[in-house]
Amino acid sequence: MDDRVGHRDPRVPEQRRPGSTEEPATLRFDVLGPVRARRGDERLATGSPQQRALLAALLLREGRTATAAELIDALWGEEPPSQALAAVRTYASRLRKVLDPGVLVSESGGYAVRVPAEGALDLAVAQEWAVEAEKARTAGDLSHAREVLNRTLGLWDGEALAGVPGPYAEAQRVRLEEWRLGLLESRLDMDLEQGCHAEAVSELTALTAAYPLRERLRELLMLALYRSGRQAEALAVYADTRRLLAEELGVDPRAGLRQLQHRILQADPELAEPSAPAAEPAMVRVRPAQLPATVPDFTGRSAFVRELSEVLAGAGDGTGAGGRVMAVSALAGIGGVGKTTLAVHVAHQARPAFPDGQLYVDLQGAGPRSAEPETVLGSFLRALGTADSAIPDSLEERAALYRSVLDGRRVLVLLDNAKDAAQIRPLLPGTEGCAALVTSRVRMVDLAGAHLVDLDVMSPEEALSLFTRIVGEERVAAERKAALDVVAACGFLPLAIRIAASRLAARRTWTVSVLAAKLADERRRLDELQAGDLAVKATFELGYGALEPAQARAFRLLGLADGPDTSLAAAAAVLDLPAEDTEDVLESLVDTSLLESAAPGRYRFHDLVRLYARACADRDEPPGERGTALSRLLDFYLATAAGVYTIERPGDRTVVHLEPTSYRGLSFGERTQALDWLFAEAQCLLACARQQQSGSGLRRAVDLLWAAKDLAESGANAKQYEWAATALRDAAQDAADVRAESRARTALSNVHLAAGRYSEADQEARRAIELATAAHDATPVSWAATDRGIIALGQGRYEEAEKFLTTARDGYRADGNRPGEANALCNLSRLYERMNRPSDAVTLARQGVDIYQQLGLTLRLANGRYALGVALISAGRLSDGLVQLSDALEMFGSNRQRLWEGTTHFRIAQLHLADRRPAQAAQHAEQALAIGFIGGDLIRGGVLTALGRSLHALGQSDRARACWHEALSHLERSGAPEAAEVRRLLAPLDAS
């Protein structure tokens, strides 16, 4: 949408010096909106419109003097009043009394405004920020450039120089508006460069309606629609633009727009704008040189290469931080991540900066017997030309002689595979001009002054490139998807990729698909990843063998849990340890690089390390302890999620009917913290539920889905929720556990319903009611009856809908579940709205809202206000309906219910259409498409129908037709009666 809509005067903040309470407030001026002068928070009286026009003319000259004649021309143009000069002097005198002394000055028969401080004029701030944004964009920092441009655009407060008369002000208004639009187009261009095309469509749709002849906006809208998978609409925008330009101006679209249409028609793959990697500098051989040879197929790691090269270059030539002291860079990472390969590659590139030599040693820190520092020093001293007879015996003397020999020389030392900081300290040069590169599985946090680098696995693109360089372009190109599966199975770990690629390269009869199939079996994957003397498992064995017993136990048990990572609290449950002790052992594992710190308080395994940890657990951990650890984790998630449910839905008795837990969960002081936890833990929580498909954990796992139902309704985790519910339903069916099966089917029905899959949802809900009735479990009956009522409502079976929803209401009342009762009332309201009983619909919705308000509910109150808003619209009370829907929209947003946000945008779009505001309707419909919505094909068809109506009213008939054709396909697929109306809308357009 246009960035001026809903603006709330984001002025440049006051700048105050700390402790300066007596300092007068700074005088500041605004011209990017109404012309204003402010002293601190006080708005100054700037007088009549002509007086403000004088102030604006002076401010826009940025301190330059304007003559009286120039000011008269600026204020009145070619027909000034007879007393124009006197009026100018009067205006200047009045302004001088309001402003600070020395601000408005008289010079050479004219006037000037001396802005008192940097940043005191909003236009100057905007110009400065625009330059900063352009520099950031040129440097490739698009995120910063976008952020700065958003700040810049936020300085506008409506129309520039608003209400200021005179020809000069009018000309400047046009100039500033053109500049603003140019900045907005630049920001939108960067939005598309960063992949935010879906989000940009809504804003661009509103802008093209506001500025229909601005071709650059049309071009950006076409590109955003195309990248959002809406090719027909993108081409329709071009058709609308061509017709509009011909009718209004008698011209064709400019070349850029025509070329974009052609590229869209050709599905040009370059519209994705690939970037090319920077070339790497060449290497030059110098002596002495102990560096191992760099690998010929070194791939990727460009950011790390650049970072380390800059540190080493500064150390070698004395221009960087390393020129003041000896530079040390320490690379840490799990075994096989490519630390040595990267260090050797960087060291070779840095050789020109170290003409006096490069030393290398493998310190064997991961093995059972690491190299002794005194032995390494003896080797280094010999390499530097020291005679054996001159090498002392003790470590201290050798280290001192080593530093003396290196004094005044420029030498690079590569200390590979170090055990710890104590091992390498004696091996570090002591003077400027030298540098050391260290690799280790342990983070050298206790190595003073070291530049620490944590090396992660390769990106998917880098991994595929490495695989291709070893295997050959032809074999990979023929089976690209299988190649991507191989590098993913390798966890993008360079050693694993090199092993897999080498095996394939040595077996010409294998296809890439054969290798991918072998690696797909997780139980055999580590065994497959070995070739010659290279083996991933052997690399991990070295690290595991060095662990203390407590570390090894934590490593084994944490590897049992599915999910992308583990929080500190969840890990404490798995290990059955206090949080402080858990953190100590986990951080020690991070230091060994067997575990990664994903974020403060969160930890994760590399995929292959997790497989190895599970193999160790199978081998070294008693079966009972493995099951008990996962049971504690399930208890932790269920107890905590139930607590979140209680905070989110006070008065809802669902939690009373959940399975009991033995391990306590977390507690939260307020609902924002509770929701933060639920959504942060979503993937881990659902993975835990899906993992418990047998034994005593099955019922608790199903109840965990019930307690975490917000994850399904939000849309963000709906797919993972569905997978877990499906797996648990099948497991419960296999176990003949009718209670667990009925609850799993209820959860699954809810997911299908949100996605608009009515047939699947009804099937699950019907079976859930049968099973729950047989198990004497009343709660799923009410839940499933609600779903069946909503389904019948959507399919026009109003009598059945009323029966199901009444059953749900009565069930909730019998259980004393007030929020459930309110939900049933709101759904009955929607039914009566569809049955053309608006008065009954409003009454029931208000009853539901009243219950939610009495209970202090927020998210459910949003559902109630949504239902009330829809009912009020059906009653013809559009303004009241808009108030309710706007409140619901804000509440859904604060509760992270994205799909309900999108659905509410759809209803607001329908309201604006009914009120004949097509531009606003189009904006909300586009936002619904960008966000998503509850209801799948049925609602998508409705949104596209509303968007088409809006566009047609705005004169964009080609794009409207594209929307209606797509809407028709969705409505026909869902069997909705609204399809007939869309056919009626299309008939005259298709006939023309």
Q: Report the C-alpha radius of gyration, rounded.
A: 35 Å
Strand fraction band? Answer: 5-15%
How far apart lie the N and C ends?
32 Å
Instruction: Please count the helical segments.
Output: 45
Inertia-based shape:
globular
Structure commentary:
The protein has 992 residues and is α/β, with parallel strands linked by helices. Strand 12 and strand 13 (534-535) form a beta hairpin. It is globular. Residues 1-23, 274-286 and 319-325 have low confidence and may be disordered.
Task: Give the secondary structure arrangement, pairings included.
Layout: E1 27-30, E2 36-39, E3 42-43, H1 49-60, E4 66-67, H2 68-76, H3 84-98, E5 104-107, E6 110-113, H4 122-138, H5 142-153, H6 167-193, H7 197-210, H8 215-227, H9 231-248, H10 255-265, H11 302-317, E7 327-332, H12 339-349, E8 358-362, H13 373-383, H14 395-406, E9 412-418, H15 421-424, E10 435-440, E11 451-454, H16 460-471, H17 473-478, H18 480-489, H19 494-505, H20 512-520, H21 522-528, E12 530-531, E13 534-535, H22 536-545, H23 549-558, E14 566-567, H24 568-575, H25 579-591, E15 596-599, E16 602-604, H26 607-620, H27 623-648, H28 671-680, H29 682-691, H30 697-707, H31 710-714, H32 718-734, H33 738-754, H34 758-774, H35 778-794, H36 798-815, H37 818-834, H38 838-855, H39 859-874, H40 878-894, H41 898-914, H42 918-931, H43 936-953, H44 957-974, H45 979-991
Parallel strand pairs: 7-10, 7-11, 8-9, 9-10
Antiparallel strand pairs: 1-2, 2-3, 4-6, 5-6, 12-13, 14-16, 15-16
Helix pairs in contact: 1-3, 4-5, 5-6, 6-8, 7-8, 7-42, 8-9, 8-10, 9-10, 9-44, 11-12, 13-14, 16-18, 16-19, 18-20, 23-25, 23-26, 24-25, 24-27, 27-28, 27-30, 29-30, 29-32, 30-32, 30-33, 32-33, 33-34, 33-35, 34-35, 35-36, 35-37, 36-37, 37-38, 37-39, 38-39, 39-40, 39-41, 40-41, 41-42, 41-43, ...
